[in-house]
Amino acid sequence: PAAGTPIEGKGVTICKYPYDPTVVLGYLSAVFLVASTVAGYLSLFYPYKGKSIPQAALFRSTSFLVFFNIALATAGLAAAFILWPTI
């Protein structure tokens, strides 16, 4: 094989590859993406100086709705790009 150590068996060759942390790092980056997305979502609705704006009022604003949808789409696209090579 191009990489790894061949182990000969009875009519079978098994290749033992060195440990590769790519999969672990990929899942770890996905976990941090979810954490940052949740933190960003919560920061949109966190009360400022003890006063909160109702979510219904925020979503009536067209510019907020566009921003929110772009942020969700970006998070989804980032998740796809992170998980695609990881899985």
Please tell me about this protein's structure:
There is one protein chain. This protein has 87 residues and is mostly helical. It has one domain. 63% of the residues lie in helices and 9% in strands. The chain has 3 helices and 2 strands; from the N terminus they run ββααα. It has helices at 22-45, 55-60, 62-86; strands spanning 5-8, 13-16. The chain has a two-stranded antiparallel sheet with strand order 1-2. A hairpin with a 4-residue loop joins β1 and β2. α1 packs antiparallel against α3. The chain is rod-shaped and about 70 Å long. The relative contact order is 0.12.
Structural class: mainly alpha
Give the strand content: 5-15%
- Radius of gyration in whole Å, from Cα? 23 Å
Biggest sheet strand line-up: 1-2
Helix proportion range: 55-70%
Mean pLDDT: 91
Q: Count of DSSP helices?
A: 3
Count up the domains: 1
Features:
87 residues, mainly alpha, 9% strand, transmembrane helix, transmembrane, membrane
Quick rundown:
Keywords: Membrane, Transmembrane, Transmembrane helix. The chain crosses the membrane at residues 24-44, 64-84. This protein has 87 residues and is mostly helical.
